[in-house]
Design goal:
mainly beta; Jelly Rolls; 3 domains; 12-stranded mixed beta sheet; disordered C terminus
Length: 302
């Protein structure tokens, strides 16, 4: 039966699924004519041999009644593929600067962190990325919404209007006290070469004076099928200046007030006239007159 009528498939058994997996097929053959089917498997090789026995099961299959398929040659071989490696480093445009130096207490679409991934020796499949949060003051998990990682195609350190490619899915924010994480759990591929990425949140709220958060990514927090990983990206610090400590506002000096002038210890019209001579009546102030009390008031702005 010609395979332009019924395709011929080359299949291999996947013990992870488990089930037969199609590697390739052909619709370009005539009846009683030789043709070749071939394919390579380069990832997750352990899925394709029986556990503990290293048997591989393959078949050539055509769904057509009693027709007979014959093969002159069949070969299955294993070999070491090119070892892929994933390196983490600083974004080409550098790290994000402080985004919390603002007068409001919320931001929309703030870009919070930059990093670069470099795949060598072959493409790398990344299954999770966990970005570390530390030195946190004043934030809880719900203050950071819908964080996403964008591919920075033009490497300028900004998510431009045409840059809509996201990787890793929407991050899950978890903050407990002064530390936390943003976890991205959707798989994505890093093709051979350098790729710059930007972490951007939909909103960050509750940014009060004195609040801050530091962000960093280490290679140990990236899970992939690479034979090895290395590197880290520089940290980013976002902090809103201000806050209070005790009484006066931080950075604000207390004001010192002097009494209104007028009058002396010797008395005067505003104080009550001349100082009289001492009287006979006991209990008076020595010398008779009114005593002037000097004072200052120190006040602080709260």
């Amino acid at each position: 039966m010609a395979c332009d009528t019924k395709p011929v498939y080359l299949k291999v058994f996947n013990f992870n699924t488990p089930g037969w997996e199609t590697l390739t097929s052909s619709t370009n053959c005539a009846t009683s004519t030789d043709f070749t089917l071939s394919s390579n498997i380069t990832a997750d090789l352990s899925y394709y041999y029986s556990p503990g026995q290293y048997w591989v099961f393959a078949r050539v299959y055509q769904d057509w009644g009693n027709s007979t398929l014959k093969t002159d040659y069949a070969d299955i071989s294993f070999g070491a593929g090119a070892a892929s490696f994933l390196s983490l480093g600083n974004h080409t445009a550098g790290q994000e600067t402080n985004k919390f130096e603002i007068s409001e207490n919320s931001l929309s679409n703030p870009e919070l962190y930059n990093f670069k991934l470099t795949a060598s020796g072959g493409d790398v499949s990344v299954t999770s990325v966990v970005i570390q949060l530390y030195d946190i003051r004043g934030f809880v998990s719900s203050d950071i919404t819908a964080p996403k990682i964008y591919l920075d195609a033009d490497n300028d350190g900004m998510v431009d209007g045409e840059e809509t490619t996201q990787v890793g899915g929407t991050g899950n924010v978890s903050i407990s006290g002064s530390s936390g994480t943003i976890t991205f759990s959707s798989s994505f591929s890093v093709s051979l070469g350098d790729h710059n990425y930007i972490l951007r949140a939909e909103t960050v709220s509750g940014i009060d004076p004195g609040d801050q958060i530091s962000i960093m990514l280490w290679h140990q927090d990236i899970t992939s099928d690479a034979s090895g990983t290395s590197g880290a990206a520089a940290p980013a610090l976002h902090m809103r200046q201000g806050g209070t400590s005790g009484g006066a506002s931080i950075g604000t000096a207390g004001q010192v007030y002097s009494p209104i002038s007028g009058g002396t210890e010797e008395g005067g019209e505003e104080i009550g006239g001349e100082v009289p001579d001492g009287g006979d009546e006991g209990g008076g102030t020595p010398g008779g007159g009114t005593e002037l009390v000097r004072f200052i008031i120190i006040s602080f702005d709260f």
